[in-house]
């Protein structure tokens, strides 16, 4: 009796069951068998972060057309590829200061000509005017003073305008249906926005360094805070309905929880000049801001420093920024009259990814995340090349802040013990909360 | 006063009767008042006088109280002393009035007094209100509105009011006389209410001379209905009416009576007639209080025309009785309370409670300060509104907090968050929806339908079949089915199990069984004898075959080989091998039965069966032996740890258990091998061999006869196992009999190598500890045996014991020495083998050791350590010499091993290397003069290189003599270090754990990798992400 033993290879154990399936691997998962796992992963993380920097090419395109600063932009609801913009060169008289979509086809604009106009944005509008013809507005809502901002209610045919007061309009009526203003306020309202989820709540910012909260249900200006510096733009978070973002003149951005307006929930510091505009990503976990310092910055929600910085040589002061509805792209309108399209993630590969590539990308991302505490990895991922003026301004700003800090410290040192206590940075932002 | 003259004259006759009535009425009232006061607590308030009360149009009720007050006072006249000191303030004026009218008859005084007093006081208190012209203009403006109000209120009460109005004071007196006591309250109330009106009238009479024309002129514009009244009375009334609309209406109501009065006044001379008239009038009223029309008709005796009467009638209907001036919208001495309204409802208690509750609030509110507080300033109000609105918004917004929390805490988010879930359609759904469309489908459907095989049909038919079965039948059927199923299942399981058996013998047996069965079946009904015969034959054949080893050629393979004829080399070799094997076997069998070859053949058959039994027994014994071994092994391993099993009681318990087990084993062995050993022991006793004493011995011949141990050594065996039998070879070869004995005794069943080890290891100090458990066991074992064993054995045991006692003493001494040196004693705290008293010492020793470690003055060598231990142990026992011997042994073993010194030296070197130093880098011959006669220059400072190094005192291992901690920085390892604990982590361990686990595919399963690398936020390209929406 002779027994014969053969080396047998069952193809099922080492070949994919179907074409396209991953190749089955047989590995020993015992960590003791992999003494160099850590070292290998670190190297990979390092490579990943280097690759990220190599492939960080965020700029996609510039849209030309305006001859003056792009004051405002609005995305069309339900689509990804249409954006409206308003510029200083906008109307017959004066600039277009506010643009918003009433619904998918109609657009509302307001300007310093003291009119709100409703437009049809279809290829061929009701009057039969094609894309090349000069169109006429569907409706004109005359106001008493120049408008600074306009925003449409998310669901109802209501829109709000900001001039020296906040006015609520019905699309079907030519006069405002209600005026909202904080008594004793004689400021110019510079921007107004409806809350996206809690759509009866709206907020405005004014030239009096104020932020005011309204509710059209109660029909009142409900609360107002006065800050150190005036805000230039505001934006409601789409996923956290209580959160509002303010772009301030003092180079910072602030998020506030409207339930407690005493202190901001986070301060975002990186701009080296006034922040002119801001907009949340539709995910609510990122936002973009454009500043007087000619940079566009993309921030992670809750992380107050080290944003992604975009800049080009020819981009001037960024007066308006916008995230697209799929959270993949960022638009910036600047003083030079161009609208630029950027990737929201600078190193992201555009186009179709196959599963292996996606797995590799995800692996690299998680490696970077895991090893971000590593000094070398961190340094590479942190380093940005920014224009010299911005860099210098940053340095200068740092110096000034440091000097201020030192001065404050010295002052405190020379006052009687316990008499002057350092105040938290967050507490300094709001001067007064008025009800 | 001049103005008072005229009315006084006219009323004198009335006044007398009035006065009397007043008196009587007052008495009654007083008595009732007390009752009422208890009934209506609020009524007491009514009498409080508030001179500084300012009247407002809104707060009528309160004022009316006062008015009432005043009215009552007037009615009750001077007797109202009980009203308290406040009233006294008013007194003087009243007195003054009296004085004025003093000239008139004293009996009239009172009457006039009361009248006048009322006027005066009223004028005083409500000066600005009633009578001053200034106010009039103001009020005239408000007339229409108030008028309406009054109408509404008083229309309800019109009949009674009318009645009371017409009654007057006199009628009140009449009522008192006539009516039953129950009526009194009402009447009195009426009087109280009416009184002021009446007196007012009279007051007006007195006043009218003062300003007849002026008021008239004014009135005409204001009050149309009264325009027709040209009477002086009417003037008065109008006067009143203008001053307050209520009073005006009063007047209009009263007018009939007034007319009567005035008529009598006109015919001033015949007092008697007038009095009569009045009385008749009153009686008329009394007769039918509610008849208004008759009253009116009674009135026409006056000069007023028909038209006027009609007017009046109209007015009457419109408004209330005469007391309805500004003082008396309600006439009761007490205010009409909610309680009054609620009392009748008392029977329906269920509703009442709730009603009362709500009413309570009302009363409390009305009881409080009735002026509304002034509205807040607009700004404050607005601020409050805003505050409230903000709170509202906050609440509304706060409803999102749970959602937001969830999003914040989510590990992975896939946007859009509120995407419409793509619903999966189930088979059922599809089946329900399905309708045959194509030809094929419809054909299939038709077929199914005709065969009644569609889903619903199947269910139907099944139910039909089951319909005509009883419950028992169904259950029986079911049970049967279940049973069958069960049986089938078991059979299947068994078959599976059997199929798995690989044993060849089993297969053979199985085959035979099968053959047998087949044969049986073939034979079928053959006789048993025949059966027996054939079997015997078969047996014989088999035996023969086996004896001759014929079957060597009967195998399948062999047959095949034979059949093949010509064979190649391999096959031939195989065959020859087989043959040789067979030969060998035969030789062996012959060798065993050396002397009795003749018997061999006969025994063969038995050998087979008996051998099997033997084999089984042998295996059982082997098992026992192994068990023993195992237990010892356990003991050994148990010694190492410092567990609970180390404790004495546990050890005892274990020992006891083992004892019991052993006993059982011994019993078993005895039973099984009884005959054997008895034989053996017989042999021993006789000193010879009786092989053929029993058939059993012959069976066990295999290999044992030759190996049987000698007599002198087998003396010590008690309950010997087969295993120990075999071991005796080695034992015999041993030179030391005592050792042998010792080794054998501890456990009869223990395997040989163990014993051997014990026997040889005794002088080896390093193996000494292992002996301890073995030492404990034997004693007990002996006892156990002596208890249970038979008497024959007992005697043997005695013998053996004697031998052992001596043996034990020796071994004890040896063991002590061994134990003392043992390593484990140094390391572990309390060793069980050492006696109780030694324990605390060991502990203290360990404490000392720690102290030594702390001060680091020196490092103890193990030798010293052991020495100390020995000292301590040696105190109690007399084995010092042995201990020292042991020490010498150790010393010799480690001669030349200066570990400690070497270590210290190494550390010193290390420290020196790391210490800061200065290196002179001067190259000789460079930068200095050479040659003879040159002095050696000092090294130049810039050529002295300073190496920072590590100061010995700052080293991590400074003052730690037993370690060397390197101060060298490992650059490669430094890469993996972090300076501070990164943010989200709260402990070092946490961070390290997170970094420990690699995430790549090489170290994870595929799924694990996918999970580990899943990004936190996933967005699909080209998908619009809408903001969160409120889902209702």
UniProtKB/TrEMBL annotation, chain A:
SMART domains: WD40 (SM00320). Gene3D superfamilies: YVTN repeat-like/Quinoprotein amine dehydrogenase (2.130.10.10). The keyword Repeat applies. Residues 11-30, 399-435 are annotated as: Disordered. Keywords: Nucleus, Repeat, Ribonucleoprotein, WD repeat. Residues 416-435 have a biased composition (Basic and acidic residues). Residues 344-430 form the Sof1-like protein domain. It comes from the Eukaryota. WD repeats lie at residues 268-300, 311-352. It is found in: Nucleus, Nucleolus. Its main location: nucleus. InterPro entries: Sof1, WD40/YVTN_repeat-like_dom_sf, WD40_PAC1, WD40_repeat_dom_sf, WD40_rpt, WD_repeat_DCAF13/WDSOF1. Belongs to the WD repeat DCAF13/WDSOF1 family. This is Sof1-like protein domain-containing protein. It comes from Somion occarium. The lineage of its organism: Eukaryota, Fungi, Dikarya, Basidiomycota, Agaricomycotina.
TrEMBL record, chain B:
It comes from the Eukaryota. Coiled coil: none annotated. Keywords: Nucleus, Phosphoprotein. Residues 61-76, 202-227, 563-583, 629-644, 656-676, 779-796, 805-817, 858-873, 911-920 have a biased composition (Basic and acidic residues). Residues 32-44 have a biased composition (Low complexity). The keyword Ribonucleoprotein does not apply. It is found in: Nucleus, Nucleolus. InterPro entries: SSU_processome_Utp14 (IPR006709). Residues 1-333, 551-644, 656-881, 911-940 are annotated as: Disordered. The keyword Membrane does not apply. Residues 97-123, 148-159, 167-186, 228-251, 596-611 have a biased composition (Acidic residues). Residues 1-14, 551-562 have a biased composition (Basic residues). Residues 711-736, 822-836 have a biased composition (Polar residues). This is U3 small nucleolar RNA-associated protein 14. The lineage of its organism: Eukaryota, Fungi, Dikarya, Basidiomycota, Agaricomycotina.
